[in-house]
Structure formats: C-alpha cells, structure tokens
Design brief:
The chain is mainly α. The chain contains 14 helices and two strands. The longest helix is centred in the first third of the chain and has 14 residues, at 3-16. The chain starts with a helix and ends in a 10-residue tail after the last strand.
C-alpha cells in the first residue's frame, strides 16, 4: 500500500471516531481472525487472559465465544483496531467505555437473551445499569455468582438494604445461607420489586411453606401481604416485625375487646395476677399463637 493511501485511511479513521457499538460509525469494521491468540499478542496480561479459564472459553461448547470468533465475539471486529490501535477502539465494557449501558448489555444478550427475557423491562435496565455493572467476565470467580460475596456487589448501590441486614433480627444473608437472588431476580421479573415470584407472599412461601395454608380460619393481613407485619431485610424487633406488639396488632385491632387495653403493673408478677400471661413481652401472640392461620373449626381468635 502506498504512503498516500495509508495516510488517507488514517485521516478517515480519525475523523469518523469509529467505535464498534457507535450507531453513527462511518465505515464498516472487519474481523481480525486468528482467535484469542491474535488479541493476546498485545493484550497479554492477567486482567485480560484470565478469561481463558472461565466458562466463556470452553472450546468444546459451541455456544461460547471461544468457539465463535473468540474475543471478537464480544468486542467486535478488530482488524482496524489492530492496525491503528490508537485511532480505532474495539468494543469496550464498563465505566471506561464510550458505549451506553444498553449497547454493552446488548452484546451479552446476544447469547443470554433466553435466560433473561425480562431484562428490557427491569429496573436495572431502566436505570442504565448494564450487565458488567454487576458481573465480571474476565475472572474465574464472578463475585455476584458467589453466595458469600454476592451481597457486596448488590450493596454497592442498595445501601439501605445493607444497613438493614446488619440489624439484630435478619435473614442469614451475611453468612451466605440466603442471597439476594433467592428472593429477587436482578434481570427482571413479573413480580413487584423484581421478586422471583409474582407476589410477595409466593416468594416468602418458597421457604416458609408452613405459612402458606390454606387454613380453616385465615388472618386477612397475612393472606394479603407478608410485609404488612414483617420487614424482610432486617429489623430491631424479633421475627422481623415492623412494630413491636401489641402496637403492631393494635394498628388494626384497636376498637373492640381487650385489644385496646393498656395493662398496668397489677398484671405483673407480684400483682393481682389477672391476665398475667397477656403482659409478658406485651405480646398478643402469648395467647393468639396461631396468628398466621388456624385449622381448628371455630377458633377464629387464632388461639389454637
């Protein structure tokens, strides 16, 4: 190639500011070929070549980038980039990318769309959170896929939930026995708050099956929504309650019977002894123990 032709190509590339994901690119980029070895001639470092030991580079799997243009499967045609690396950038991911979060995620969804069909309607997508905001592709152990470290990734944004799981009463999230994705689908779902099921109750029942029922005598707020009484991420009150009893119960049961009474010291040990069992802990469930529902006919007070 003559010098004048080479110079003309360089000028054209500089003026066009070419990027693989740019919808206004002026020229058509072409594949480099040669697999990952061609790219590693320049990009041979631990941060890059660690992907060779991940599921993305299982060469025997026809679905992986290793079996489909290798690095170019995600980073796009790179022939021009290899010739003029300073002038032409391949597709980049993360904060340093010139491409939008939507464009970056589109590359991932070209393979993972079937697994994440609700991504387009998810809160994360709507907030310009891309796949690489949570996932680290060039690593053997993606933190968000590890039950112990997953919460650290989620808590980089969800600070309120981080505070709540450090309260005295909580699910065993910090121990990795329960993870964020046990309840939430970060890629979008048909339920509220990206829950894995279509409702709060159905999600809770995945673990708390004994509360599902059906019961002969059903407690209406329980059947309506578990979070009427419980806060799922953490509480300063036992059993993850949102308010201490009897005040929690009195939010609904305040206009009849003994539910509105404020028991005095006569009911404590050493007093008259009347209704003493109702005073311990100030809790209605000292008597109404089957508060989630009862199967005894006629036991509408949930005492049995």
């Amino acid at each position: 190639m003559k010098f004048s032709q080479t110079f003309s190509i360089i000028i054209t590339l500089l003026l066009s500011s070419v990027c693989f994901a740019d919808s206004e690119q002026a020229i058509q980029l072409t594949p480099l070929g040669g697999g990952e070895k061609a790219c590693l001639e320049c990009h041979d470092n631990i941060k890059v070549n660690s992907i060779l030991n991940t599921p993305h580079f299982v060469t025997a799997d026809a679905r992986t980038p290793a079996a489909n243009q290798a690095c170019e499967a995600c980073h796009g045609p790179a022939r021009e980039h290899s010739l003029y690396p300073q002038e032409v950038s391949a597709m980049r991911f993360g904060a340093q990318s010139n491409s939008s979060a939507e464009a970056q995620s589109a590359v991932c969804l070209s393979c993972h769309q079937r697994d994440h069909i609700n991504w387009g309607n998810s809160t994360h997508a709507g907030e310009d959170v891309g796949c690489v905001s949570c996932h680290t592709v060039h690593t053997q152990r993606d933190m968000v896929l590890n039950p112990i470290s997953q919460t650290d990734v989620c808590f980089t944004c969800h600070l309120r939930e981080q505070m709540e799981v450090n309260k005295p009463y909580r699910h065993p999230v910090r121990e990795g026995a329960v993870t964020c994705t046990d309840c939430h689908n970060p890629h979008g779902s048909n339920g509220p708050s990206a829950l894995v099921m279509t409702s709060v109750n159905e999600t809770c029942y995945l673990c708390h099956t004994e509360k599902r029922g059906p019961f002969v005598n059903e407690h209406e707020p329980v059947q309506d929504n578990c979070v009427n009484c419980h806060t799922p991420h953490g509480s300063n009150i036992e059993n993850l309650l949102i308010v201490r009893p009897p005040f929690l119960c009195q939010q609904c049961h305040s206009d009849h019977s003994h539910a509105r009474e404020a028991y005095d010291f006569e009911d404590l040990p050493g007093g008259s002894g009347r209704r003493q069992n109702r005073v311990v802990g100030g809790s209605c469930v000292n008597c109404h123990s089957n508060i989630h529902g009862s199967n005894k006919p006629g036991a509408r007070s949930f005492r049995e």
